[in-house]
C-alpha cells in the first residue's frame, strides 16, 4: 500500500502516478483529495484499487470513499453551545473549497436556526485547520466589537489557536469564552482547559478504507460510500455565558451535567453506527450528511440502511430545502 504526502494540494502531484504504477501496490488510499479522470483510468487499467477518505469535493459516484457525519457534528457542537445560552457563537471552519468544511458550517447554521438565532456573517471565518490560522482568526474576532461568547473551531488544532488567543486577550476559558473543537485528537484532553470537541472516528475511517481495498467482496464493503458517526465529547472548555461573577467568583449559570463515569470527558453516545449510505447529490457549495449520529435529533427519513435528512424545518440542511 502506498502512502503519499501531498501537502495542501487536493489532487496528487503530476509525478505521483508514475511512481505508484512502478511500485505496483495492493491499493491506494488518498485523504482530502480529488482524482482526475485520467488518474482513475490509469489506476483501473493497472488493476490497482483506490479509496478516498474525506473527499475534498463532491464524492464521485464511481470512486469508493469513506467519510464521517460532518453536518451532524457541526450541529451537535453548536447545539451544545446554544443550549448553554450562548447567542454570539462564532465558527472558524476549514478551507472554503472543502466538503467537510462546508458540511460543518451548514450544521452550525442549522443549529443556530433551530435555536431561533440569526447567523452574523462577521462571525464566520474560513481557516486552514492549523493552529496559527485559528489563532489569527480568533484574535480578529475577540478584539473586535461585540465579540462572541463562544467559538466553534473546525479542528482541534484551530481550537488550540483560539485558546491561545483567549489567553493573549485576557479572556478566561470557559468563564469568558467557550471553545469547541473538532476531531478529538489525543492532545485535546490535555489542553488547558481540556477541550470539548466532536469525536471524528479517524482510525475507523482508515480501517474501513483498508477493508474496502483489501476485501472488496466483503458484504460490508459493497457500498461505494461509507459514512461513520460522530459524537460530542464534553470536557471543560465550555460553560454558560457569564458563568462566574468576576468579583465574587460565584457561579451564576449552570453548566451541563456530567454523565457518570465521564472522567476527563463526558462522551455523548452516537445514535447510529457506521453504515453504508446512499448520499443525496451535491453541488460545489452545498454539502449533505447522514443524520442520527449525534445526541441531537433532526427530522429524518429512512432510505436503505442510512437516514438522510429530509423536510423543510429549521433543523433541515439547507441543500434539502425547497
Automatic annotation (TrEMBL):
Organism superkingdom: Bacteria
The UniProt record lists the keyword Ribonucleoprotein: no
Coiled-coil residue windows: none
Gene Ontology MF annotations: DNA-binding transcription factor activity; transcription cis-regulatory region binding
UniProt keyword list: DNA-binding, Transcription, Transcription regulation
Occurrences of domain Transcriptional regulator LacI/GalR-like sensor (ranges): 79-238
Gene3D superfamilies: 3.40.50.2300
Disordered: annotated span: 234-277
SUPFAM superfamilies named in the record: Periplasmic binding protein-like I
Entry-linked InterPro entries: LacI/GalR-like_sensor, Peripla_BP_I
UniProt KW DNA-binding keyword: yes
Name recorded for this polypeptide: Transcriptional regulator LacI/GalR-like sensor domain-containing protein
Protein's organism: Streptomyces haneummycinicus
